[in-house]
Amino acid sequence: MAPLRPYRRYHPGTQPEYLHSPYVSSQKRAPSQPLVHLPHTISEITGPVFSNELIDVKAFDLTKQHSAEPLGERIIVSGRVIDEDGRALPHTLVEIWQANSAGRYAHAIDQHDAPLDPNFTGCGHTITDAEGRYRFVTIKPGAYPWQNHYNAWRAAHIHFSVFGPAFATRLISQMYFPGDPLMANDPIFNCTADESARNRLISLFDWETTMPLHALGYRFDIVMSGRDATPFEENHGAHR
Amino acid sequence: MTLRATTWQTVGPFFKIGLAWLYREDLAGADVHGERIEITGRVLDADGNTVPDAVLELWQANSHGKYAHPEDGQNKPIDSGFSGFGRIATDDQGRFRFTTIRPGQVPAPEISGKAATAWAPLQAPHINVSVCTRGLLRRLVTRIYFPDESANATDFALLKVDPVRRSTLIAKRSANSPSKFEWDLVLQGPHETVFFDI
């Protein structure tokens, strides 16, 4: 077999630590033991491949899932899925979920006293095209309060799930909106040490994808781990 | 100048609305080759409380030890009905369950220029697992291995793990049925599952 081509490790500081005490739920769920470093094997450099038949071609439009349009500010969220070397990642599954315009999720355990919208479920999916592009039509999600600390509010966000080409590249993240004053005090937005890494979670308002008389455009590019140039090296001791 | 990979964020408590459409708890259809197995377990936190809002993703080879992916160049049979992907959520008691076929063995890495290694050329049968929950700022990665499997003793990944913690990666055979296994995932604490940095 051809030699394996591992994926690059995350750059130090650009990913959250598991324990981030200001996010209270992490305290009992973050592992206390160091992770065991595992060089990539065929198990990590392969990953699920999703067929076109799986994809509902209408699922990119969250405003057309019911008999009438949802309430709120209609927006277009689009961007590219690329790797750290700027290469497009075509045919990769992108899933999103979010609160409605009032800041309420269509989920049984969301008890926030804000109205549900019978015309908005808040989930969608799509698959990237040959240039790695994706596009969703949705409603700008509202901010909402949560129990983490006194007067805690989540900044408005859309959850993103992206697979990329391998088990090693799996990513789940959240996209934020430019200028949202709640980000400064949101422990989830702030859980990553590296400020520029955090700021890359903020979408850009985009005239190019804004549709006249219809919807504002926001651009959010997603970067997945790149390929490591160095071949497999056994330079890590056991029990590490 | 390379770009930097996007930062992870927690799935939060409401992931079901976005991820449930792709839940797959029966990985292998009736015509897929291999030994049928069922794996059940619980996800537990530092206090031993069950975690009712966890989502697990599974990735495994087919019974011949081949992944359904273009970069698996091994000359082994493909099962057209078997993608190797599963996604399951815990219920309100923190339990999960999935059925699949027992995976075959896949290659361990080769090291050029080094004749002898402690690990065998093939990895022991295993299922790759990602777990995400509210409170986890990014996923945890682990593996499920099988008991009574002689290849475990020379498995590439198990040999990297402190011997006293290896048992957290090995499912237990159910007393009721040889095809049923139990495996708990413990996020934190004295019986914490081994998680891998991949």
Your description of this structure?
The complex is a heterodimer of chains A (240) and B (198). With 240 residues, chain A is mainly β. Chain A has one domain: Aromatic compound dioxygenase (Protocatechuate 3,4-Dioxygenase, subunit A, Sandwich). Chain A is 4% helix and 24% strand. Chain A has helices at 42-45, 195-199; strands spanning 36-37, 74-83, 93-98, 123-127, 133-139, 144-146, 152-154, 157-162, 171-176, 204-205, 216-219, 222-224. In chain A, the strands form three sheets. In chain A, strands 2, 5, 10, 11 and 12 form a five-stranded mixed beta sheet that branches. The longest helix of chain A is centred in the C-terminal third of the chain and has 5 residues, at 195-199. The two termini of chain A are 28 Å apart. Residues 235-240 of chain A have low confidence and may be disordered. Chain B has a single domain (16-186), classed as Sandwich (Protocatechuate 3,4-Dioxygenase, subunit A). Helix content of chain B is 2%, strand content 25%. Chain B is built from one helix and ten strands. At the A-B interface, strand 1, helix 1, strand 3, strand 9 and helix 2 of A face helix 1, strand 5 and strand 10 of B. Strand 1 of chain A pairs parallel with strand 10 of chain B.
- How many DSSP-defined strands of chain B? 10
Q: What is the beta-strand fraction of chain A?
A: 15-25%
Helix/strand class of chain A? mainly beta
CATH superfamily of chain B: Aromatic compound dioxygenase
- What's the helix count of chain B? 1
Q: Count every beta strand of chain A, where a strand is a DSSP E run of 2 or more residues.
A: 12
- Global shape of chain A: globular
CATH topology of chain B, anyone? Protocatechuate 3,4-Dioxygenase, subunit A
- Overall, the morphology of chain B is globular
Count of separate structural domains of chain B: 1
Which percent range fits the helix content of chain B? under 10%
Given as residue ranges, the uncertain stretches of chain A (5+ residues, pLDDT < 50) are 235-240
CATH class of chain A: Mainly Beta
**Secondary-structure element sequence of chain B?**
HEEEEEEEEEE
What profile does the largest beta sheet of chain B have? 5 strands, mixed
Q: Which two chains share the most extensive interface?
A: A-B, 94 and 79 residues
Task: Indicate the CATH topology of chain A.
Answer: Protocatechuate 3,4-Dioxygenase, subunit A
Low-pLDDT stretches of chain B are none
- Please state the oligomeric state of the protein chains shown: heterodimer
